[in-house]
Design brief:
Number of strands: 10
Strand content: 5-15%
Number of domains: 2
CATH architecture of the largest domain: Up-down Bundle
CATH topology of the largest domain: ABC transporter transmembrane region fold
CATH superfamily of the largest domain: ABC transporter type 1, transmembrane domain
Structural class: alpha/beta
Oligomer: single chain
Shape: elongated
Distance between the termini: 65 Å
Strand order of the largest sheet: 6-7-8-3-9-10
Radius of gyration: 35 Å
Helix content: 55-70%
Number of helices: 23
Length: 625
């Protein structure tokens, strides 16, 4: 979508397009989303889309036919009652049966259309959700850490299962009612040409008011994305087991609930104001429509009283005018709903159009260092700052990890340790400098190839609400069903004891989200995360980010005995606040405020008496106490 369209669709908060030209431009920009939506429908269910189009065409022409047959029935009854030549019960009954057939066809078309809409809704909703999820897979870490992008994702997901089909259905409704109106107008013109103009003119003000309210409804819902996430978060605090201890201990319930109520109250007042305005305009323009109908009704009834038209003509006029009024209102209502749907679709397409590919290799074809053995990892004057930030997270870091070397990484919170790991995994690229593996710049490698060479356990590891076997096997999805390999990884990671204690062992569903789920302690979850990293037997580099944060000293010792054996022929980076952990490293890098302050073995750093030595002694004194 063009930037001009975006401006029309998303006026700044607090601003409203006052001029008709602005509203029409916004409507045009919104309806520009229709072709893309129809392509989604075509991809979801071609046969269903064609069937729905055919049923719509049938439903469009039947009302005029039914109205005309109704006129013929009335005229035939009047003629038969007067004994007119050629009139009789047989003709009346035949016309009634004809109308019955048309009504049955209309009913069948309506039911089939309803069925097809439900089927198409499921297929289309699933396709749109798949596109949203596929896009999420293509997004980079920088996108997920950008609140604006995250809001786009939430807006896209908000009504993904309903809005696309609604836009298509309303488009068909516009076509159907326009055709119906054209057919009815052809009948109406014969009796009262000016009635057609009255019919349309009486409905236009209601359309303009509804279109404006639809745009305001969309803007309110769009603005709510950040606050909507806050509302969901407040609900999350009060309903998740991970929060209940602190909520009860600190008595947070009333505070969080009061904030929830205040935010919900704000949403309610906004919705109420829009609903009241919609009701007021609806009553006003409904009365206008009634006045137009009964004014025309009185004039045509007077013509029938003067015998200028037949009783059948009067019946036809009343039927056609009522149906015509309904058709005009349906068209305008459908256009209004289309506008609102199109505004939503603009959000969906804006999300799907977020530029990605920043992780793609610069070199084509991507360069690939030799596999099967660890290679040198070099950081050459690496500096990095997060998008939109002025402070440097890393500054001028140069470091070489020799093949097979074990590097400890220590530093205070915010020193840049986790940022460095993100750069090594190419979740971000350096702002300045370069990182090379085996002499190849990471930006010239295929990211999937790079990450396949790395096994990692993160401090914020994921607790998958899957089976125990899957929790470990996900470390190498290609071997998810290889139970012997999963068992070996569990032994290496020290998780075999956890598995043995589970009620269904490998088939036990873990976590508390689903029925019969078995919850684990933090330390047990972490052992599974470590075992998951050990699934990647071909890994050339191991990264352990606080791997012992939730386990006791004995378990920590056992883990690192296993880690020594596993990492014997691999390079490894260990991040930890426990200095007993990093002592096993060949060298230790000390980061401070994003800069490499010290580098050397444990003995060298202790002899130097710098920052590392001070922190080590401080921690050791804490243990002695």
């Amino acid at each position: 979508m063009t930037s001009a369209s975006s401006r029309h669709l998303r006026a700044p908060r607090g601003e409203r397009p006052q001029r008709l030209r602005d509203r029409l431009a916004g409507a045009a920009a919104g309806f520009a989303q229709a072709p893309g939506t129809f392509r989604l429908v075509w991809q979801a269910d071609r046969a269903g889309a064609l069937l729905l189009a055919g049923l719509t065409a049938l439903a469009a022409v039947l009302p005029a036919g039914i109205a005309w047959v109704g006129k013929l029935i009335v005229d035939a009854v009047v003629a038969a009652s007067r004994g007119a030549p050629g009139a009789g019960e047989g003709r009346v009954v035949g016309l009634v049966l004809l109308e019955l057939g048309l009504m049955a066809a209309a009913m069948a078309a309506a039911r089939l259309s309803s069925l097809e809409r439900e089927l198409l809704r499921a297929r289309l909703g699933n396709l749109v959700n798949e596109r949203i999820l596929e896009k999420a897979l293509a997004l980079e870490l920088r996108h997920f850490e950008d609140s604006l992008v995250y809001d786009k994702m939430q807006n896209a997901r908000r009504e993904a299962s309903a809005r696309p089909l609604s836009l298509v259905v309303q488009s068909f409704a516009v076509i159907q009612n326009t055709v119906t109106l054209a057919a009815l107008s052809a009948l109406l013109v014969r009796l009262s040409p000016w009635s057609v103009a009255v019919l349309v003119a009486a409905s236009i003000p209601a359309f303009l008011a509804e279109a404006r309210l639809a745009a305001e409804t969309f803007r309110v819902n769009t603005w709510r994305a950040p606050e909507g996430r806050r509302l969901n978060y407040l609900e999350w605090i009060l309903t998740r087991d991970s929060h209940v201890k602190e909520v009860k201990l600190f008595g947070l319930g009333p505070l969080v609930l009061s904030r929830y109520r205040a935010l919900f109250g704000k949403f309610y007042e906004e919705d109420r104001a829009l609903a009241v305005r919609r009701m007021g305009w609806g009553v006003l323009f409904g009365l206008l429509s009634l006045a137009a109908f009964y004014g025309c009704y009185a004039l045509v009834a007077a013509r029938a009283a003067r015998a200028e038209i037949t009783l059948g003509d009067l019946t036809l006029y009343l039927t056609v005018f009522r149906q015509g009024q309904t058709a005009v209102q349906n068209v305008l209502s459908a256009v209004t709903t289309m506008y609102e749907d199109a505004l939503y679709m603009s959000e969906l397409f804006a999300y799907l159009g977020i530029p990605t590919g920043g992780e793609a290799a610069r070199a084509l074809p991507p360069r690939a260092p030799p596999r099967g053995r660890p290679l040198a990892l070099e950081l050459d004057r690496v500096s990095f700052r997060y998008p939109g930030q002025e402070e440097w997270a890393l500054r001028d870091v140069s470091l070489t990890l020799a093949p097979g070397e074990k590097l400890g990484l220590v530093g205070e919170n915010g020193a840049g340790k986790s940022t460095l790991v993100k750069l090594l995994l190419r979740l971000y690229d350096p702002t300045e400098g370069s990182i090379r593996y085996g002499g190849v710049d990471l930006r010239d490698m295929d990211p999937a190839d790079l990450r396949a060479r790395v096994g990692a356990v993160f401090q914020d590891f994921v607790r998958y609400q899957f089976t125990a076997a899957e929790n470990i096997g996900l470390g190498e999805p290609a071997h998810l069903d290889d139970l012997p390999r999963i068992e070996a990884a569990a032994r290496r990671g020290g998780a075999d004891g956890v598995i043995a204690a589970l009620p269904l062992r490998w088939e036990t569903v873990l976590g508390g989200w689903f029925e019969k789920g078995h919850e684990l302690s933090a330390g047990q979850w972490q052992k599974l995360a470590v075992a998951r990293a050990f699934m990647r037997e071909e890994a050339e580099v191991l990264i352990l980010d606080e791997p012992t944060a939730s386990i006791d000293a004995e378990a920590e010792h056992e883990l690192f005995e296993r880690f020594r054996a596993l990492a014997a022929d691999r390079s490894a980076i260990v991040i930890s606040h426990r200095f007993s952990t990093v002592r096993i490293a060949d060298r230790i890098a000390v980061l401070r405020e994003g800069r490499l302050e010290e580098l050397g073995s444990h003995r060298e750093l202790m002899e130097k008496g710098g920052r590392y030595a001070g922190l080590f002694r401080l921690q050791a004194e804490g243990y002695r106490e």
